[in-house]
Amino acid sequence: MADETPSQPTMAELKAGWVKAELVAAAESAAEIEAAPTRARPRDRDDELLSDPPATRDQLGGFAGWRAGRNLRWMIVGVFVVIAIVVAIVSWQRSARDEYERLHPLPELEATIADGTPREMTVADGQFRLGIARDPPAINVVHLPDRDITLAKGQAKAQFKVEVAQGKTLTLKVLTGKIVETLHEGAEPLLD
């Protein structure tokens, strides 16, 4: 006698049954979806979803990290702004100091000159190389027998050579900067 026990279905038979059941279910759900297009197909875990989820930072996804680093970014930007301001102030002070040192190369000598000292020079006879400047204590006007020499507008310093003989200016040559000659009566201009 043969033992008649029901045989177990094979894996292929089980899979074929599942596929058939899914096809039938898909056909039924497709008919339901066509009948009510605004209703999504129900899923197994739909009852776990909240209809009104609470507002937490977990809802931000990838932006949560961006928001979390906001304070650090503000601090870094603030540090760079402060550094830029300090560098600008230091460079401005350094350029002002360099300009002052350029205009006042001998502060010890300048300290010996009293305020109110005349800043004019008179030349009567001879050859000279002279310098004039706007800032004290430098000379700013040179009186020659037949003309006066001053700085041109917008100039800070100038140097020139002059030759004077017998009450008349023979030569006037500008070396640096620009000067203006104010002629006395009967004098002829020597500058171009």
End-to-end CA span: 142 Å
> What's the tally of helices?
4
User: Which band does the percent of strand residues land in?
Assistant: 15-25%
Task: Give the radius of gyration.
Answer: 49 Å
Mean pLDDT: 83
Assign the structural class, choosing from mainly alpha, mainly beta, alpha/beta, alpha+beta, or little secondary structure.
alpha+beta
Number of strands: 7
Largest sheet: 4 strands, mixed
The strand line-up of the biggest sheet is: 1-3-4-7
**SSE run:** HHHHEEEEEEE
**How helical, in percent, are the residues?**
25-40%
Q: What spatial form do the alpha-carbon principal axes imply?
A: rod-shaped
Runs with pLDDT <50, length 5+? Answer: none
List descriptors.
single chain, 192 residues, alpha+beta, three-stranded antiparallel β-sheet, 36% helix, rod-shaped
Blueprint (SSEs and pairs):
Layout: H1 11-35, H2 63-68, H3 70-103, H4 107-111, E1 120-122, E2 126-133, E3 141-144, E4 147-151, E5 157-165, E6 168-176, E7 179-183
Parallel strand pairs: 1-3
Antiparallel strand pairs: 2-5, 3-4, 4-7, 5-6
Short description:
The protein has 192 residues and is of the alpha+beta class. The protein has helices spanning 11-35, 63-68, 70-103, 107-111; strands at 120-122, 126-133, 141-144, 147-151, 157-165, 168-176, 179-183. It is built from four helices and seven strands.
